[in-house]
Specification:
Blueprint: H1 5-12, E1 18-23, E2 33-35, E3 40-49, H2 56-61, H3 67-73, E4 80-90, H4 93-99, H5 105-120, H6 127-137, H7 143-149, H8 154-166, E5 170-172, E6 177-179, H9 181-193
Antiparallel strand pairs: 1-4, 2-3, 3-4, 5-6
Helix pairs in contact: 6-9, 7-8
Length: 194
């Protein structure tokens, strides 16, 4: 679920507690969380509603001046409307992880072991080192250029980069990526093992 920075800031400030989306099926689950570019959102509820069931109070809780304004903002598609209760959980935990390059030998070995498992559990083979090398060698390069350089499309390429990001090894830039301080340390350790 893509959410504009302005909306995220309002959720963080406690001014917005609802989001409305048109979907064929829900993109989030009640009780779950959503990682965003600003931090982590908690998903309190996910309910299908009709336009009639949306109230003026709902519109205000979603950051709109009126129900009419909210409905005009929803895409006009033949899909269900979902009313999603949200709250701010906190900062992106990967930020602190990315900055942590003071890794012990044991921690480095654990990360390398996790990368090996990602490789083993994938039909792509040893992709993790390829991605880390590519991002190291070509920081700030648009994702499409990186993806095409290894014969992939962006929708196929990006989820794999996110796996590395979840380990705190990469950071998103505009455009492209770079290795985080943690990622640099892991990349160097991998090269030393060759």
């Amino acid at each position: 679920m893509l959410i504009k920075n302005k909306i995220l800031d309002e959720i963080k400030a406690g001014n917005i507690s609802l989001i409305f989306r048109r979907w064929k099926r829900p993109g989030v689950k009640a009780g779950g969380t959503q990682m965003t570019q600003r931090g982590v959102l908690g998903i309190d509820s996910v309910k299908t509603v009709t336009e009639k069931q949306i109230t003026e109070k709902d519109a205000k809780a979603a950051g709109f001046k009126s129900k009419k304004e909210l409905l005009a903002d929803l895409y006009d598609r033949d899909e269900d409307i979902y009313r999603i209760g949200v709250h701010w959980v906190g900062e992106d935990p990967r930020k602190a992880l990315r900055a942590d390059d003071k890794l012990s030998k044991k921690e480095l070995d654990e990360i390398i072991s996790r990368l090996k498992k990602l490789d083993q559990n994938s039909q792509r083979g040893n992709w993790t080192q390829l991605y880390l090398q590519m991002i190291h060698d070509r920081p700030n390069t648009h994702a499409q250029v990186l993806a095409e350089s290894i014969g992939l499309t962006i929708p196929t390429f990006k989820p794999w980069v996110r796996k590395l990001k979840a380990l705190g090894l990469t950071e998103s830039l505009r455009p492209g990526y770079r290795l985080s301080p943690r990622g640099e340390k892991v990349w160097k350790a991998l090269r030393e093992k060759k």
